[in-house]
Amino acid sequence: MSKPVVSLVNFTDPRESVRKALELCDGLAGLDKNDKILIKPNLVSWDFDLPFPPYGVVATSAVMSALVSILYEEGFRRLTIGEGPLMIPKTIGRAMFTVLGYNKLQEKYGVRLVDFNEEKFEKVNFDGLKLALARSVLEADKIINLPVLKTHNQCLVSLGIKNLKGCLDRKSKINCHGREHDLDHSFPRIPGKLPVALTLIDGVFALARGPGHIGEAYRKNLLLASKNILACDIAGAELMGFSAGEVEHLAYFAGLTGADTSLSALEIRGESLEKHRFSLEYDWDWTTEDTGPVAFQKAGITGLAVRKYDSSLCTGCSKMYNPMLILLMSAFKGAPFPRVEVITGKRQKASPGFDYTLLFGKCVCSLNKDNPDIRQAIAINSCPPDKDDFIAALREVGINCDYNQYVAFRHYLYNRYKPENGFDPGLYSL
Ligand code: SF4
After folding, report:
1. What is the pLDDT of residues 383-414, one digit of tens each?
2. How many CB atoms lie within 10 A of CB 101?
3. Is the pTM of this model over 0.90?
4. Ligand 1 within 6 A of 191 CB?
């Protein structure tokens, strides 16, 4: 039996590189000129209030533009770009399309731009797990999947299979992080019911400790492409230093489809994967006692136990998690915290022996509402938690956070990427 083909090419000139990646894996062979083609980039989030470095977080506009122009040149006219970004508090899809220059693709090539969050969704039964998919996704004849080469602090990697979670409505996304269905065994069911014809991984940048902007991006100048979504993800994971067998959602998907997760089961065309292989961390170091990030320990913070998030924490809370940590750090002036435990997500329960229990988010508030181990609750009972509520609730118990320190941190994150090191914001506009 022939092996699934994955192309691996250097990213130099966007159009030449994308074309080469497609040609080496014969990536357009399964598409018909009359097909309604949906391109699904990874545009998980953006921040319009504070500096936001997009490197390794969202797909580059350079790759998207090259892909669209090649498809148009090849005679494909029924093109849609669709994504359902994170809703905090409302959807930002159209604003993202504008900032990324997609409106120019609409003008020049007649591409339809769809924010899935504004569409109707239809429930699909995935062997007992009901998830609602956007109508444009269900109506597509073929899907071209355009993820980013990134790690993920809950799933190790976030590539083609994970990118399709963005086709779900908000409730279904939350259910993927549920108590009954754990993350690694929920979203991998999605591709099996969709006509994914091609996966093109944008590796212009790769992101350590992803999936968001607080991770660290590296310029890598690579593209991977395959008609086989699993094969593309295996190669992408291997490139970042993970064996696909250790990535539970890849192993699970392979099990569903009877496929092999070993690199030797693929045919890599173009560049040598071994030559380009690197190693990225996917998560932050936590103390062995589970009292918080190692950085807190190094800063001398005591009297505070931040329990490490688990996979039941969905993207809304995850996005607020780092601001929460930075705000807690800002409140540390040398004296111990007044014996505070911080818990999150849908599974964590308060431990005895703390004076305060900080319940971060509606789910953990609900789970612990009658917990006798809580002496005094600091409840941030919203979904997702709101930073102003958080600051106000802590102030009430004498813990004073300084939001300006969070703003300064965001400037630091943005300013560490220098144009001379390849961090060119022009790759995210047209
Ligand atoms: S409170 Fe947090 S964990 Fe619960 S559903 Fe909302 S975002 Fe998800």
Report:
1. 999 999 999 999 999 999 999 999 999 999 99
2. 16
3. yes
4. no
362 Cα nearest atom in ligand 1: 1
Tokens of 254: 């392979």
**Ligand 1 pocket, residue 316 CB under 6 Å:** yes
Mutate to test the pocket of ligand 1, among 87, 307, 317 (most ligand atoms within 8 A of CB): 317
Residue 82 region by backbone torsions, left for phi larger than 0, else alpha for psi between -120 and 50, else beta: beta
Is 15 a residue whose pLDDT tops 90?
Answer: yes
DSSP characters over 210-233: -SSTTSEEEEEEEEEEESSHHHHH
Nearest residue (by CA) to ligand 1, atom 2, is: 317
Q: Is a pLDDT exceeding 90 seen at residue 180? A: no
* Encoded amino acid at 260, one letter: D
- 341, two tokens: 């435990």
Task: Give the ligand 1 atom nearest the CA of 385.
Answer: 1
* Residues 6 or more apart in contact with residue 370 via CB below 8 angstroms: none
Domains of the chain: 5-282 (3.40.50.11440), 294-412 (no CATH)
Distance 84 CA to ligand 1 centre (A): 17
Which atom of ligand 1 is the closest one to the Cα of 382? 1
* Alpha helices in 331-386, H assignment, sequence order: 362-367
Among 87-96, 99-108, 204-213, which stretch is predicted with the lowest mean pLDDT? 87-96
265 C-beta closer than 6 A to ligand 1: no
